[in-house]
Amino acid sequence: MAKRKSCIAGEFVIERAESETITVYKIYDNTLGGLREVAAAVGFEINEKSNTRNNGAQLIKFVNEKAGIDDKNHAVAGEFSIEKLPSGTISVYKTYANTLVGLREAAATVGFEINEKSNTRQNGSKLIDFINEKKGE
Q: CA–CA separation, 10 vs 56, rounded Å?
């Protein structure tokens, strides 16, 4: 088995498991932007006159009510996770179901070119190495 490795590039976390499976996560710096993406995916209307905390709480409630879940602090909608922290702060995360799309987005932020002839595992591993090497410069 290959050694597990990972990197962080801006909003993206890319991880290669020991099985060589690649996973891409996005942790939204722009929380309201992330909430808008989730809202569009689930058919929720963001209240532009309200703040991020209220919109996040309402979106969590909306998603969980549709799913029959009684949780005011966390919701999962497809690739997205929304979390309300004890402080009231809202966090939005995305775990890419289509890993190659996530790799392309992450690669674009660091100037890495995805090799369309390589597979996801190869591209992911090379991107992780590229990002980690850039950090070491």
A: 22
User: What per-residue string of b and e applies to 12-48 under the rule 16 or more CB within 10 Å gives b?
Assistant: bbbbbeeeeebebbbbbeebbebbbbbbeeeebebee
Tens of pLDDT, residue by residue over 33-70, are 999 999 999 999 999 999 999 999 999 999 999 999 99
Residue 90, classified by CB atoms within 10 Å of its CB into exposed (0-12), middle (13-18) or buried (19+), is buried
> Can you give the pLDDT at residue 120?
95
> Which H/E stretch holds residue 80?
strand 80-84
CA distances 89 to 31, 53, 54, 124, Å, are: 10, 6, 10, 31
Closest among 7, 10, 6, 11 to 91, alpha carbons compared: 11
